[in-house]
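Listing S7. Sequence submitted for prediction.
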Amino acid sequence: MAILHYQATKFQSGASNPVEDALTAEAALRISINGQVFTITMRTPGNEEALIRGLLYAEDMYRDLDHHPQMRVEERNQYGYITAVDLTIDPEKAGKRDINSRKLLSVSACGICGNTELAPLVPGLEISDKKGALQVETVSEMFREMRRHQDTFQLSGGSHAAAAFDVDGKMLNMQEDIGRHNAVDKVIGQLILDGTLQDAFCIIVSGRISYEIVSKAFVAGIPALAAVSAPSSLAVDYARTLGMTLLAFCREDKFTVYSGGVG
């Protein structure tokens, strides 16, 4: 759990009082591949291997599920958080995307901000035929289960969460991060590291769903997405085009289906 404590002054009803607030940590992470800088992403420190594994998989930079890149820590900051890593990847196993296509700073709020352009989804991929559908009665329970594990959010109120579930509604993995897309990358990466990616049927997120989250789920072969908040128009368009199930405004035992269906 990456939490930092800050002194502040709280104003309420005309009075002020000193307070100490727990805030979600945010730090830059420079990711290099074979000595060449790939991207700098802003994220909540922790689970770096899962974050990077999911990011590289979603961006078609490394899609081998059986062998994991060797990660060497190059720098840490004053809090001990990892701030720079270098990955050793066999060039023959690397994806087809140009490493120079992601040279800008990738901020916590946007999973594609580090790209120089909106990359097309990996050609030739399609959602695998995972039998079943999201069940109406399990949707609310999935979000309740995720909330029970949001320890960082409970302390700071400043982190997003993502969680993966199988077709029966069993939670496979849950991750928190200051960025929605980072939390999704961490989940996908951890599923790969655990060897359970093929079991993932649905990813739920604590915020909104936009294009980049739909694309990450699609590339990972996960056919369903659900969110506490709203979807973007592009997210709905992509989900419908790709044949994915997309639910949003999942709160208080209610939700709206924008693509696909429920059982």
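Caption to Listing S7: primary sequence and predicted structure tokens for the chain studied. Residues 136-259 form a domain with the Cytidine Deaminase; domain 2 fold (CATH 3.40.140.10). The longest helix spans residues 180-194.
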